[in-house]
Amino acid sequence: MVKVGIVGATGYVGGELVRLLTRHPQAEITYLVSESYEGKTIGEVFPHLHNWGNIVCQKLDVEALAEKTEVVFLALPHGVSMDIAAQLLAKGKKVIDLGADYRFDNLAVYEKWYIKHTQPQLFSQAVYGLCELNREKIKTANLIGNPGCYPTTAILGLAPLLKSDLVELTNIIIDSKSGVSGAGRGLNLGTHFPECNETLKAYNVGKHRHKPEIEQELSKLAGEEMKITFTPHLIPMIRGMLSTIYLNIKPGVTLEQVHRLYQEFYQDEYFVRVLKPGVLPETKFVAGSNFCDLGLALDQDSNKLMVISAIDNLIKGAAGQAVQNMNIMFDLAEPRGLDYPGIFP
Amino acid sequence: MVKVGIVGATGYVGGELVRLLTRHPQAEITYLVSESYEGKTIGEVFPHLHNWGNIVCQKLDVEALAEKTEVVFLALPHGVSMDIAAQLLAKGKKVIDLGADYRFDNLAVYEKWYIKHTQPQLFSQAVYGLCELNREKIKTANLIGNPGCYPTTAILGLAPLLKSDLVELTNIIIDSKSGVSGAGRGLNLGTHFPECNETLKAYNVGKHRHKPEIEQELSKLAGEEMKITFTPHLIPMIRGMLSTIYLNIKPGVTLEQVHRLYQEFYQDEYFVRVLKPGVLPETKFVAGSNFCDLGLALDQDSNKLMVISAIDNLIKGAAGQAVQNMNIMFDLAEPRGLDYPGIFP
Amino acid sequence: MVKVGIVGATGYVGGELVRLLTRHPQAEITYLVSESYEGKTIGEVFPHLHNWGNIVCQKLDVEALAEKTEVVFLALPHGVSMDIAAQLLAKGKKVIDLGADYRFDNLAVYEKWYIKHTQPQLFSQAVYGLCELNREKIKTANLIGNPGCYPTTAILGLAPLLKSDLVELTNIIIDSKSGVSGAGRGLNLGTHFPECNETLKAYNVGKHRHKPEIEQELSKLAGEEMKITFTPHLIPMIRGMLSTIYLNIKPGVTLEQVHRLYQEFYQDEYFVRVLKPGVLPETKFVAGSNFCDLGLALDQDSNKLMVISAIDNLIKGAAGQAVQNMNIMFDLAEPRGLDYPGIFP
Amino acid sequence: MVKVGIVGATGYVGGELVRLLTRHPQAEITYLVSESYEGKTIGEVFPHLHNWGNIVCQKLDVEALAEKTEVVFLALPHGVSMDIAAQLLAKGKKVIDLGADYRFDNLAVYEKWYIKHTQPQLFSQAVYGLCELNREKIKTANLIGNPGCYPTTAILGLAPLLKSDLVELTNIIIDSKSGVSGAGRGLNLGTHFPECNETLKAYNVGKHRHKPEIEQELSKLAGEEMKITFTPHLIPMIRGMLSTIYLNIKPGVTLEQVHRLYQEFYQDEYFVRVLKPGVLPETKFVAGSNFCDLGLALDQDSNKLMVISAIDNLIKGAAGQAVQNMNIMFDLAEPRGLDYPGIFP
Fold first, then answer.
1. DSSP state, A126?
2. Interchain contact, C180 vs A193, CB within 8 Å
3. Does the reported pTM lie above 0.95?
4. Which of B39, C183, D10, D154 shows a CA-CA span of 20 to 30 A to C235?
5. Does A165 share its domain with A240?
6. DSSP-assigned letters across all residues of A313-339
7. Residue C7 forms part of a structural domain
């Protein structure tokens, strides 16, 4: 049994980590940290976890945490994880950071979009934890920068094309839509029910922090610097994320060719499902699961390829992918603890 | 491995049965019947079941069905199950009927509220499958009338009180609220999104078919004929059911006494959670699970006890309870295949 | 043109007052107070009011406010209105308080459920502004305690019965359901979208502050002290409120008798619509309007009469009724500025 | 008073026409046609219109209809309007068709995307009723093809740019999102509450019928043949439509330049609101109103201009625009009957 600690256990991502890991046949939660709910059991904080919820939330004490765990999940706001990760690594622990602090290769990019970084020397050992693409590196990593939710949809949606000769790598547009849980558990007028139900809006247009993260990973895959256009939208639903990606297809390329490419690229991947041509993904069919569904369509008229990518933002977009990373790091079967369907309707 | 057949596999309850049973460690789905989707795999009908969905939906052929299965779940409209159940029983199969055809003791009551019954001779061997209350009979039953969703909330909510001397057995009011999935997958103007979202209504006031079902079971528990008032409401959410039950409490009885009674009554029940006094249940904390949460409150001023009972209407209110019944019938651990938390948020 | 001021203009009720009054043919908003948005135009605060929104929000300055207005609406948390109302009255202004500070006849009751009152000497001149029942007193009032939303549904739903001999006045249960906007614009985990969408719960059972308000008014109408049981529930929709009221009907009384009583009682009321027997109200059909729809049903079996009462909580339950009160106070046609249908779907 | 008839009065668009026109100070509904609800009053069909609802729905009788009306709104499925429009025109009536039958200039395009047209000779007299752009022609028209909802957002969003030299006219992508009411009142599994709530999907990718309609109008405005990419998505909300439009901006063009262009272009338009740079529209702020809000953003990094366009699909996208067309045709003040804000929250 892998001994697991979670810091930031009482946010939405933290709660999902607890839910997934309490049911994981080869992991055991041995330490939970929550400053806001210190002293409460996790079952009091999250009544749905009642029967699995005797473990008590602690204040952060890195010493005690390190003593009781082999791997620690950090589900914290960016900036807060950097030092904790460093301390845990120094004690020989493995760290999976679900925030942005260890997702970047380039200090300047991180500091432009976020804040000053105190541990840039760790960048070189951090692995970007998109499991399907970086599996080999993850196996031996001690520090994982778990991908953002939008980047997960975008990168999985685009990866097969980047080395192909089927599309142009300019003029790529990623129009993304997210359920409200992606904004977290912190209170905000924009996520107050009467304000965000029965409405629809784009936000942070041209300046969302997931844009440089997407560009970094696409550039590495393509082997050249890539720029994309990215627009996130807030949708009145709790879970689910869907990205509609537009690319210029090269003359003469058919939808079947593209489909074959995707099928081959993902043929051994348990959690990526390439749908038949003409079938489009829908967030409801991945909600509650770790799957990413990919659909393809072609507008011959305007020579545009559309790739549509759907995930549950809290699972494949956060906690589920983090557990998948843990499975890879500890040489467990990759789907362990994650091999069940979502809930419908 | 118990060999299982499901008739009516492509409605919401059928879909939940497939989902629960594909993941059940001691059951195996060997036959699926769906007239509407004959020839399709269950994964095509329900994309969320894609990875578990190779089994093909068949037309009903009782012979073939009986040959391949030990127990058959019937998730059909009332009236349709009666003869199929009889044929399967005649072939020595066990039957769990999720409709109303075998829930009643009294032919006249059934025929008043439903239609003419063709197999009333089976009434005496059918057991009302409310697991927590009828476990002993269920163990040896061949035919289960799986309870309706509203009755599950009402009966579990009231059972501890009926033999106690703490409340009056008249003037009981059950004000129930249900998510829209309870109305099934059939199309109807009342469940068309723009008509039933952002609104609230009572329906079938004083004439819902679950009223006699509730009265029958309460009367048996109380040992006297009981009449209740029952009003169902439709709520703009997919899953979840909550009943607010009002009773006149006897003079001098305290909330603590009532709470102790409930705790003792349900102390060995895995799926019934009696909340602390002052804590009220919420459907979100049982959604996606087989739990029934019960909360208690007292209005001293008007001498009313309120019992609030919450379930997931498709799980404890239908498919989950049916699987729980199967577990009891086949002497499996009762929580098997059902022992996980719901999903939050 | 009546010159109108609004204090607390940027909450939900305040926003509705602005919307209704900008369009009122015989009123003119001359002063808006909002501490949180001082200096902003109301069109910046509420983009839907953009074309009507040039008026600038001010800090509270009772002097200036009194100078520019004839009547002032106070849409403030309880406790905050008491002194402002007193100051405005002293300057000869009329005041419509949408909070609870002037709804009570009895100081002890107010102070038990709320806080210490600084202006109890004003109780005797304050009129409870339920327009249909207190119209004569409202005509000459200077200070209106505008009813709470739950009390509006309950009192309009019960008023015709209280002097009749058709029902018992004990054992009355009011099971109420409210959309989330009723909780106001202040941030709260309970109204954070992922927490309150797709769920259902009762809250403040037996201790909601609208209970004594309902009891006070019912007692006055009945001419005897009445106790009721009241349970509010939170429903995942923005607007709308529905109360299901249960009473014991006297032997032999028919639904037609009750229906006739209601029709006669409300025959001259523009804003109360008594539905035909068998037709039940639904919040969607009053949302966006000042109407209260009343439906009646009888469960002969248990001798229970059900009265179902539906309003838009922000309009007939708050801002609309306040405008209706203003119309009465200033001798305008009562439906002026309120005579349009809601929006469907 | 303009005498108005509505054919197809009991769908969502028909219901909105009735609501808007009953309150229009210079119009009077004199004839309602509904095959499905013949003999019922409109107040019985739509309880929110109760107080305005005495008019009885008739079967279609063109003779009687023409006799009682000056202008007829046709809110019918495509194909059904063509002959009725011809008959009414022959009797000297004005016709506003809310379907697609008279939106196209080119018979072949119509017949490729829809069905065989029986009255192509009327194409030359039909005017595409996008009020802001075709006002002069509408003034004297007898036959209006009222625009589709998606085209309204797209064309209003793009019109200012098409004659400018600020953007390229290739590579235009229109990613649109619609509430469920856009799919109409007909029953469909895709709009069944449990299937379309809490989910998100694209549909008809590359083959939605609004694509050629958008292309036709953009081509006329640009003076050259234009091709666009258009992807509609279904959003779990009742009303509202938002299009996110992507264009390649020419080198050196600033957001301020674009903003100035939009402000000038729409400076005299009551119903088009150009938001300040950096402010993005949201459907909630136009819901329930006839406004179209336009927001602009620039991604300097990828040289993409984003135009975001929001309407209420049933009002500016259908019934409201039709009434606006009527106002223009009958020389009434253009905002008459439409000059009120939407409802928030």
1. E
2. yes
3. yes
4. D10
5. yes
6. TTIIIIIHHHHHHHHHHTT--TTTTT-
7. yes
Q: How many CB pairs under 8 A join A and C?
A: 52
Q: Is residue B342 part of a domain?
A: no
Which chain C residues have a beta carbon less than 8 Å from that of D268? Answer: none
**CA angle, residues D88, D94, D95, in degrees to nearest 5:** 75
Contacts (Cβ under 8 Å, ≥6 apart) of C49: C15, C18, C19, C22, C42, C43, D341
> Within this chain, do residues B171 and B247 fall inside the same structural domain, yes or no?
yes
Measured CA distances, D306 to A17, A233, D148, D149, D150 (Å):
37, 13, 22, 19, 17
How many A-B residue pairs are in contact by the CB < 8 A criterion? Answer: 79
Least CB-CB distance to D244: which of A202, A240, A310? Answer: A202
**C149 assigned to active site:** yes
Is residue C84 in some structural domain?
Answer: yes
> In terms of domains, do B61 and B173 share one?
no
Nearest residue on chain B to D240, alpha-carbon basis: B194
Domain CATH number, residue D27: 3.40.50.720
Among C106, C124, C142, the domain-final residue is C124
- The CATH number linked to C209 is 3.30.360.10
Place of tokens 């409802």: D343
CB of A48 within 8 Å of any CB in chain B? yes
What pLDDT is stored for residue B165 in this prediction? Answer: 94
* Packing angle of the helix pair B255-265, B149-162 (nearest 10 deg): 110
Q: CB contact, 8 Å: C106 with chain B?
A: no
- Residue B345, preceding bond cis, omega within 30 degrees? yes
* Residues pairing with B337 in the sheet: none
The residue of chain A nearest to residue D295, with distances taken between CA atoms, is: A202
Residue of C nearest to D48 (CA): C285
Structural domain of residue D232, as residue ranges? 150-312
State whether B62 and B185 are in the same domain.
no
pLDDT in tens, chain C (345 residues): 999 999 999 999 999 999 999 999 999 999 999 999 999 999 999 999 999 989 999 999 999 999 999 999 999 999 999 999 999 999 999 999 999 999 999 999 999 999 999 999 999 999 999 999 999 999 999 999 999 999 999 999 999 999 899 999 999 999 999 999 999 999 999 999 999 999 999 999 988 999 999 999 999 999 999 999 999 999 999 999 999 999 999 999 999 999 999 999 999 999 999 999 889 999 999 999 999 999 999 998 889 999 999 999 999 999 999 999 999 999 999 999 999 999 999
Residue C65 lies in a domain: yes
User: Is residue A137 classed exposed, middle or buried when 0-12, 13-18 and 19+ CB atoms within 10 A define those classes?
Assistant: middle
CA atoms of B21 and B27, how far apart (whole Å): 6
> Are residues B265 and B131 both part of a single domain?
no
Q: Nearest CA to D58 among D29, D31, D33?
A: D33
Bridge partners of residue B2, in order along the sequence: B27
Asked if residue D308 and residue D161 are part of one domain, the reply reads yes
Residue in D15, D50, D284 nearest the CB of C273: D50
- Chain C residue numbers with beta carbons less than 8 Å from the beta carbon of A241 are none
B181 interfaces chain A, CB cutoff of 8 Å: yes
Domain end point (choices A106, A124, A142): A124
Pairing of the two strands C57-58 and C27-33: parallel
Instruction: Spell out the residues 6+ positions from residue A254 whose beta carbon is closer than 8 angstroms to its own.
Output: A298
Residues from chain A that touch C237, judged by Cβ atoms under 8 A, are 197
Q: Which of A71, A106, A107, A101 is nearest to A89 (CA)?
A: A71
- Compute the radius of gyration of chain A from its Cα atoms: 20
Verify that D84 and D218 share a domain, yes or no.
no
Helix D131-139 with D149-162: angle, nearest 10 deg: 100
Same domain, A100 and A9: yes
Spot the catalytic one: D131, D149, D196, D292: D149
Nearest residue on chain C to A239, judged by CA atoms?
A: C194
C178 touching B (Cβ < 8 Å): no
**Cβ distance A339 to A24 under 8 Å?**
no
